[in-house]
Design a protein that fits this description.
TIM Barrel, globular, 11 strands, 15 helices, alpha/beta, two-stranded antiparallel ribbon
Length: 350
């Protein structure tokens, strides 16, 4: 599969852009375990236009993440075009437009999936981003606003004619949010509506078996994995193994799991500062330890600490069979704070 000049190989797996999840520390781990393409969290065009620190920080990425796309969203044409120029100046491999986020505060201003109620404006925003960018532009969207307004085949043709280099579709409507089953039956129809650009399927590809099923049942060119990767960067390794040999790679050992959580924490602290990194990491523990004996007790212990070393002390001294107390074990080598942080994005000067 190719997106313009970006060769992603056969049946590539892409990490979905997820707010408060797919930041540089998490993305670099997913890359290590087999993700072929990564995207930033979605970035507000208004936030970039006004130089909001949180929005600017989301432009950052590790060089090792490539190919990586910066995803932007917004409902004001000129503002989104300005955001595209700012993103383009950071030298990503592509720019992606979010036309799929279902959250109320985004759609009320024609951002995300809200634009599915105004297809001419969707076309105008897409054209403005393409004109503002020197690199490929892609789109991620949904089937439609609701069941009564699904026009995804026409939308796909329109976007390709406008000049997008690839299309990713979450196979739910905005009305569905994340409820119910993703409606994969639409994906072959969308694929048939496209002439030359690849289609990336998204929605419920949450296990190696489901990834294979999406490829086999729908004919998509690539599969985008979202919630299935939260606390589980190994899903890319496992899915690739299943696609290649029909067997799932052995799950991570407890030692590997602890090592990756410790590294994730360390990268978070390097990227955000220790206090904020420790606090933000708390939302990831549920995914990493789901299904393991004593997981709830371990999460509670980890959340008692506001410093990195305190959290690492618990991690490296916890045995999965110990539900109530932690027992010292052979200490793994603690990851050091990396000397080289992600490249810092800067707003272009006038």
């Amino acid at each position: 599969m190719r997106i313009a000049d970006i060769d992603l190989g056969t049946k590539p797996l892409l990490l979905a852009p997820m707010e408060d999840v797919s930041d540089p520390p998490f993305r670099i781990l997913c890359k290590r375990y087999g993700a072929d393409m990564l995207y930033t969290e979605f970035i507000s065009a208004g936030g970039l236009a006004y130089g909001a620190q949180g929005s600017v920080q989301k432009l950052e990425f590790y060089e090792e993440e490539r190919p990586v796309g910066i995803q932007i969203f917004g409902g004001e044409i000129d503002q989104v075009a300005d955001a595209a120029r700012i993103a383009d100046a950071q030298n990503p491999d592509l720019i992606d437009i979010n036309f799929g986020c279902p959250v109320k505060k985004v759609v009320c201003k024609d951002g995300g999936a809200g634009i599915l109620r105004n297809l001419p404006k969707m076309e105008a925003i897409t054209q403005a981003v393409i004109e503002a960018s020197s690199r490929p532009v892609t789109v991620k969207t949904r089937l439609g606003w609701n069941d009564e307004s699904i026009q995804i085949e026409d939308v796909a043709r329109m976007l390709e004619s406008t000049g997008v280099a690839a299309l990713a579709v979450h196979a739910r409507t905005r009305a569905q949010m994340y409820r119910g089953d993703a409606r994969w039956e639409w994906l072959p129809l969308i694929k048939g509506a496209l002439r030359d650009i690849p289609l990336i399927g998204n929605g419920d590809a949450s296990s190696p078996e489901r990834v294979r099923d999406m490829f086999d049942q729908t004919g998509v060119d690539g599969v985008m994995i979202g919630r299935g990767a939260i606390g589980n960067p190994w899903i890319f390794r496992e899915a690739k193994s299943f696609l290649e040999v029909g067997e799932v790679h052995d799950p991570p050992s407890w030692e590997e799991r602890i090592s990756v959580v410790a590294e994730h924490l360390t990268l978070k602290c390097a990227w955000l500062g220790e206090r904020k990194g420790v606090l933000e990491m708390r939302r990831m523990y549920g995914g990493y330890f789901k299904g393991h004996r004593g997981a709830s007790q371990l999460r509670m212990r980890l959340m008692e600490f506001k410093d990195r070393d305190g959290v690492l002390e618990v991690l490296h001294n916890w045995r999965p069979e110990d539900e109530e107390t932690s027992v010292p074990v052979a200490r793994a080598v603690r990851p050091a704070i990396p000397a080289r942080l992600p490249r810092k994005a800067t707003l272009p000067t006038a």
